Amino acid sequence: MATFEQTRSMRNQQHFEVLEIDLPVITGACTIGGSSGYGTPLTCDQAWSGEYKTYKFTNQNAPLIQGSPFRCIKSISETATSIKPGQGLAGRGSLSITFDDFINQDPNPDAPAVNATVKKQGTFFGKLAARQIFDNKNVRLKLYRVQPDGTIDLANGAETRHYVAESFNAGSSGTWKLNCKDVMSLANLDEKEWPIATNSFLRQDITENQLVLQVDNETVYSIGMVIRIGDEFMRIDGVDTSDPADHKIQVSGRGIPIQAPTSLEILTITEKQEHDAGDEIFICDESDDETIDSLLTRILIDSDFDPTLIPSAEWAAEVNEWHATTRINTLHIESKGVNDVLKSILNGFLMDLWFSTTENKAKLSAISVWKQSSSTIEEGKEINAYTISKKPQEQIRASRALVLYDKRNLADNEDDSSYRKGSQFSDNAIIGTELYGEHKDKRFNNNIMLDKDAADLLTQRYVSRFKFTPYIRSFTADERYITFKTGDVVNVNSEVDQGFDGANSNNIRAQVLKINPKYNKEGRQYNVDLMTYEAAFEDNSEILLDGPLGEANLFVLAGAPSQAVTITFVLTSYSFGQTAIRAGNFASGSKIILILANGFEGKANGGNGGKGADGAENTNTPPPNNAGNGLNGGTVYDAQGVDTDIYFSGSTPSAAYPTADGYIFAPNGGDGGFNAFQVGPVNWLGGSGGDGGNGRLPGTGGPAGAIDGGISGAGSNGNINDTGVGWGQDGVDNDASKGLAGSGIIDSGAANVVLFGATATRYVNGNGDH
Which of 347, 319, 345 is nearest to 332 (CA)? Predict the structure, then answer.
């Protein structure tokens, strides 16, 4: 005896299938209207106890099988689950079995009403259909092989494909057809909404300042809930149900921002308004520092998907590997179709979700060019010779991608103007008259769940995955060579992919989208679809960053590789931000090479000037000396513990950029503010603000203190260019302390940060580590 996998490599294979369906039965006492019944919940007055009977059917030409399943399967047609890259939700699978009906048998032979006459009356499937409701019953199609010694391991020798029944209908010429659907369809995601509306409402009008609200008596409110009435958001901090006919809730404030208790992020701002009795109260669902897998799981379970079919540990591991730092902080403020909600999550974080019929579980997978192949498939072996074709998917290609995020007031409409920030990533290296003549754009839907790193990662991963035209490769394969699964990444070696020299290319990486069995009398074959990853990032890749870099995370801009890598970034524009460029969360053992080219100018924010102290009028008591300190300048590059080589001038290891030409200048700190000064026996004028420090985003001059009489004034803003004081300078100590100079480069634990060609005119360290 052997398992399905143990017999997979058999050269000569004899295939057959067994179809199992679990239908409810009632054994023992069964009557209907005082007469004997037929042993099913539809035909018995007795309560059903949860008992099922498994009916088994096999091919008409199947070998003799222990247990004698009915040999009546005429044909099998299956459409397997198909991943749709970039669309999030996969195409759902379906199964159709056609049976030849037969006589002189009964589906419930031991039922009280079934006697010899009943057994001979009608047909087997006609009686089965009359006694059962097939909708959503579990169906298993078991794929078997006859073993070399002629035996069959019924217990362990099958690959099982899981579906649920959708309909059972009579056909022509004495046939019946069982139609089955993907298990994911059990949740009826096409017909459901999330978050689930509670039909809650106000019982009395409320003013814009009222904190105690009279609400409906049916909804179960709880402390901590965020509610939306019209366009206003409120958080509940008290519930009073002492009077069953007069339930009340208390909110923590009106018109104040809603802050998440764990992440402390502001989820939305809001404006207080008056509301009328009968207005809907929508209970918002809150994501507070939530992982992608957690949110998807909650939505599916709320939509009645079986939680035992969600492999929580696998999902968490996938998210932790490819979205290790991603957290969702938002409110879900209105009911939407579950499919639409799932797509917004999956598309926003570039992930695929599908149901594996062979593993009987929902699968979640990130899309990343860093995913490594698990095997190689070759034409003439895994691919039947001369069966492979490839079809371009030009509609998916994009060399530039954009997404808008950061919607401050979630009640605003979905217009672009409601979003404050955007992320754009482009690969300009493939644009030119000799390559692609112009950019092809991917515009993602605006997304309230993204933060900066998540938005940058989305646009980077999409362009990196689809910047070259992807191809779907379709081929036929024999069962003995199906050693890969839907979702796997594989290398492909075939005649349709030739290298520059005409030889077969063995560097084609592709994701398995679909493995579709085809059933016929000679046995099973498989139609397989792959989509290529061209060109894939590898260790020692070089990435050109030719746009401005603000608060840039190199790990994200590399697509967040999960393994240790050595990767080169060529920087050709300029940088800005409090920490203009940071290495990010690279795996231990990684190395970064930065090549500053084309006059790259690395700068960061200048420090703001300190505030002037407030003045006072008509008092004999001097005001406090509360002038503000100047703020420190920012950091141009933080290695964050990752070994880094930085080329400022001279030769580089890059073939495309063999000579470095760039600068890193630490910004300046802001000046301290000034105290108030006395201008009469009982009057003090507010002090002047300190000047801002120079930086790519210059420091803002500190404001003058209150009651300055128009004399003191705010400090001057810093400058984007050197004003003669030089770069990397501390601010000036005035009455309040100066801000310190920013840093050119800080190591943050990196053992080896090496600078090449960093002359005094090209590098100013400030308070950095070099």
Answer: 345
- What are the Cα distances from residue 434, in Å, to 400, 430, 669? 18, 9, 47
pTM reported for the whole predicted model: 0.85
CB-based burial label for 642 (10 Å; 0-12, 13-18, 19+): buried
713: left (phi over 0), alpha (psi -120 to 50) or beta: left
Handedness of CA 603, 604, 606, 607 (dihedral sign): negative
In this predicted model, which residue has the larger pLDDT, 372 or 755?
A: 755
DSSP assignment, residue 89? B
Distance, CA of 524 to CA of 237 (rounded, Å):
62
Farthest CA pair distance, the chain: 120
Tell me, rounded to whole angstroms, the distance of Cα 731 from its chain centroid. Answer: 44
Provide the Cα torsion 681, 682, 684, 685; round to 10°. Answer: -100
Q: Could you give the CA distance from residue 323 to residue 640 in angstroms, rounded to a whole number?
A: 18
CA separation for the pair 349, 455 (Å, rounded): 8
Token pair 């259909």: residue: 129
Beta bridge pairs of residue 53:
23
Q: Say yes or no to pLDDT of 499 above 60.
A: yes
Residue that is written with structure tokens 């705010």 in the block: 714
As given in the structure block, the two tokens for residue 304 are 């009645």
Count of other CB atoms within 10 angstroms of residue 463: 24
- CA–CA dist 555, 453 (Å, integer): 10
The pLDDT of residue 688 is above 70 = yes
Mean pLDDT of the chain, nearest integer: 93
Give the phi and the psi of residue 658 in degrees, each rounded to 5.
-70, -15
Q: Number of helices (H) and strands (E) in the chain: give both, helices first.
A: 7, 46
Q: Model confidence over 416-467: pLDDT tens digits?
A: 999 999 999 998 888 888 888 899 999 999 999 999 999 999 999 999 889 8
Residue 373, phi then psi, degrees to nearest 5: -75, 145
Give 226-248 pLDDT, tens digit per residue. 999 999 999 999 999 999 999 99
Q: Starting at the earlier edge strand, list the strands of the sheet with 489-493.
A: 375-378, 489-493, 508-520, 523-533, 471-478, 389-392
Is beta strand 193-194 parallel, antiparallel or unpaired with respect to 336-337?
antiparallel
Nearest by Cα to 529 from 496, 487, 497: 487
Rounded Cα distance between 11 and 390, Å, is 28
Q: Determine the distance from the C-alpha atom of residue 239 to the mean position of all C-alpha atoms in its chain, rounded to a whole number.
A: 36
CA separation (Å) from 106 to 60, 63, 102, 125, 308?
A: 19, 23, 10, 9, 34
Would you call 529 helix, strand, or coil by DSSP?
strand
8 Å CB contact between 617 and 682: yes
CA distance 362 to 360: 7
Helices (H), 410-451: none
d(CA 389, CA 262): 52
Query: Which residue do the tokens 């349709």 mark?
Result: 496
Place of tokens 């209207």: 33
Radius of gyration of the chain (CA): 34
- Over residues 546-593, the pLDDT tens digits come to 889 999 999 989 888 888 999 999 999 999 999 999 999 999 999 999
Is residue 450 within 8 Å of 403, Cβ to Cβ?
yes
